[in-house]
Specification:
CATH class of the largest domain: Alpha Beta
Helix content: 25-40%
Distance between the termini: 13 Å
CATH topology of the largest domain: Rossmann fold
Strand content: 15-25%
Number of strands: 18
CATH architecture of the largest domain: 3-Layer(aba) Sandwich
Structural class: alpha/beta
Shape: globular
CATH superfamily of the largest domain: Glycogen Phosphorylase B
Oligomer: single chain
Largest sheet: 9 strands, mixed
Number of helices: 20
Radius of gyration: 23 Å
Length: about 525
């Protein structure tokens, strides 16, 4: 089975958030299951610089009026996954971030930039490269959302398509004239097409025209069908019926492993956690905090954004300091919030430290902290809480989306049956967050219980193996079933769960070809 995996960022070539981690780890897990996966992403300068064995594979001519675009093949350094980069300097070689300039403003030509990504994906899907043609095109988020539409425009045989929504709040909405710029007929600008409140929506195009749609956790898949979490698209997703499901994200357990992590001052594992104390001392020392193994250290690795409740975390910091705990932030985002956190760092020097995001620092914080704050007003899946659990750092999360799927609260029942792994609160308010932090600090002062919670957290399996198998089953359904629109089947369960539809498809696949005639 050949899968073209299309994303706007892939670790370690370019990263602004969890999408990059997923776009690296999931293809690796699929490859281990025997699938021939090729990645496609924009050729940002950082990506081109880190690509292994780069080679110009093809030229795009004057596609969409861009005359400097080539397709560069290569491999990822840490996994050797094959990847194609779209080297188009006029679109992707610029200072600032992947999607915004240095002042946090969206690039004004984002529609063209990621419309070009979708056009390139559609060309490869239709045989642009004679040596390789996919059976499945798996597109991620709005950046690649036009790909299924462009494939439908061509007519004739085409690969099956799957859209994964990593965050419904980011929709890729642009003015109506975007269609003509991207060579798409105006007939698609209607409510049952790509029109969304008077704009062209890349994400809506993907939801409407993909053969199947997934999102990144079972609980979030249920939430987005409601007006509260659906961001105006809940009705569109409800229309997908059983062809919409949730599959929980995993993490790269080789990359995120406290026993082998090269960023740590001292390795450790679930059987010998003495190294975690050394990591805590290293973190305290390097961040200018008082080195005290008994003083609780609370970490926050996050974008400074409303979604992540960074404003509420900011309000909680004085309470954390008053409780005698230390606080470390590794993150960046909203300039006003960043400045406010820095002010608190200056005010509580020695107890609070603020740093901008750095991948190595994030690893060190997960290892050195005792508690991780990972709250959210909404959270499709979240990876930080899974990283923290892997490192024996107990997370404080709000009961929403994938956070609810991955963290078991330390209630009396869960605590007594050895299932608890963190601290869960209900409301997106300061009292609720502070209450959960206080519960965490109270248990921290009971070392035997705390050590048991750490061990339970570290023993949770958040590898991609199970979820990759679910994607593989979904791919097979898309190829086997004659009508791809019926290829959803269920909202995929969380860890350790199965579904009747999956069992049925296993029986079907035993007796039928795994390749659809195309």
């Amino acid at each position: 089975m050949r899968v073209l995996f299309v994303a706007s960022e892939v670790f370690p070539l370019a990263k602004s958030g969890g999408l990059a981690d997923v776009s690296s780890a999931l293809p690796m897990a699929l490859t281990r299951q025997g699938i021939d996966v090729r990645l496609l992403m924009p050729g940002y300068p950082s990506a081109l610089a880190r690509l292994i064995d780069p080679c110009v594979e093809a030229r795009f001519g004057s596609l969409l009026g861009i005359k400097d675009a080539t397709l560069v093949s290569g491999r990822l350094a840490h996994s050797h996954l094959p990847i194609w980069l779209i080297d188009a300097p006029s679109l992707f070689d610029r200072p600032g971030g992947l999607y915004q300039d240095g002042h946090g403003r969206d690039w004004p030509d984002n529609a063209l930039r990621f419309g070009f990504l979708a056009h390139a994906a559609a060309m490869i899907a239709r045989g642009f490269l004679p040596q390789w043609k996919p059976d499945i095109v798996h597109v991620n988020d709005w950046h690649a959302g036009l790909t299924p539409l462009l494939l439908a425009l061509g007519g004739g045989p085409k690969p099956a398509t799957l859209l994964t929504i990593h965050n419904l709040a980011y929709q890729g909405n642009f003015p109506p004239e975007t269609l003509s710029v991207l060579g798409i007929p105006n007939r698609f600008f209607r409510t049952d097409g790509v029109e969304f409140h008077g704009q062209v929506s890349f994400l809506k195009a993907g939801i409407r025209l993909s053969d199947s749609v997934t999102t990144v956790s079972p609980n979030y898949a249920k939430e987005v069908l409601t007006p509260e979490f659906g961001c105006g698209m809940d009705g569109i997703l409800r229309d997908r019926g059983e062809s919409f499901c949730g599959i929980l994200n995993g993490i790269d357990t080789d990359l995120w492993n406290p026993a082998t992590d090269p960023h740590l001052a001292n390795p450790y594992d679930v059987h010998d956690m003495s190294g975690k104390r050394a990591c805590k001392a290293d973190l305290q020392s390097s961040f200018g905090l008082r080195v005290d193994r008994d003083r609780p250290l609370i970490g926050f690795v996050s974008r400074l954004a409303h979604q992540k409740m960074a404003d509420v975390v900011l309000e909680s910091v004085p309470s954390i300091a008053a409780a005698g705990a230390q606080f470390v932030l590794v993150g960046e985002g909203d300039p006003a919030l960043a400045a406010a956190f820095q002010h608190l760092g200056d005010r509580y020097r020695g107890s609070i430290a603020i740093r901008t995001y750095d991948e190595a620092l994030a690893h060190r914080l997960y290892a050195g902290a005792d508690i991780l704050l990972a709250p959210a007003r909404f959270e499709p899946c979240g990876l930080t809480q899974m990283y923290a659990l892997r490192y024996g750092t107990l997370p404080v999360v709000r009961k929403t989306g994938g956070l609810a799927d991955t963290v078991a609260d330390t209630t009396g029942a869960m605590l007594s049956c050895d299932m608890a792994t963190g601290f869960v609160f209900e409301d997106a308010t300061l009292p609720a967050l502070v209450g959960a932090i206080e519960r965490a600090l109270a248990l921290y002062r009971q070392p035997l219980i705390w050590r048991r919670l750490q061990q339970q957290a570290m023993l949770r399996d958040f590898s991609w193996n199970e979820s990759a198998a679910k994607y593989m089953l979904l791919y097979s359904r898309l190829l086997v079933i004659g009508n791809p629109q019926s290829a959803g089947g269920c909202v995929m369960g969380g860890r350790g769960k199965s579904c009747e539809t999956g069992s049925h498809m296993t029986r079907v696949l035993r007796g039928r070809s795994s390749r659809r005639s195309i």
